[in-house]
Amino acid sequence: MVFPIDIRIVATALLLSAGGCTTSNLSDIAPTAAVTPTPRPADAPTAKNAAEPETPADTAGPVDTGTFPNLNTKPDAATGQFAETEADAKIAELKAAKAGQGSKSGASAAEIARLKKLAKSHADKTLDEIEN
């Protein structure tokens, strides 16, 4: 039996239109709680004392001083600079530490040759597996 309109399209349209007939809003899903006003601190500005200017010590954050900052002043260093002799001593200490970081295993020349041969055979074996 051949239908001029595919039955799946009609069924989908009917299901979607039936789903749009339901009515729900956010208050049905999650009702709002009663809002209670937050009590104000005693020193909070009110209409009576709002006209009083605050001193910069009372405010937190940036304060408009009416001038631009001078970025040309050199900032104070947090620490003193190394002297040449101190720098040379540190460089010598670092070079000594670098020289001491060699292999500590004490492998013999025969052991090193054996490991290099093993690495080469493993590489050749893996390459053969990939190619074949």
Report the average pLDDT across residues.
75
Q: Roughly what fraction of the amino acids lie in strands?
A: under 5%
Overall 3D form: flat
- Class by alpha and beta content: mainly alpha
**Total number of β-strand segments?**
0
Helix segment count?
Answer: 4
Please outline what is shown here:
Helix content is 42%, strand content 0%. By secondary structure, it is an all-alpha fold. The two termini are 55 Å apart.
How would the blueprint of this fold be written?
Blueprint: H1 7-19, H2 26-29, H3 84-99, H4 109-131
Commentary on this structure:
The protein is flat. It is an all-alpha fold. It has 4 helices and no strands. It has a domain at 107-132. Helix content is 42%, strand content 0%.
Task: Name its key features.
flat; mainly alpha; 132 residues; 0% strand
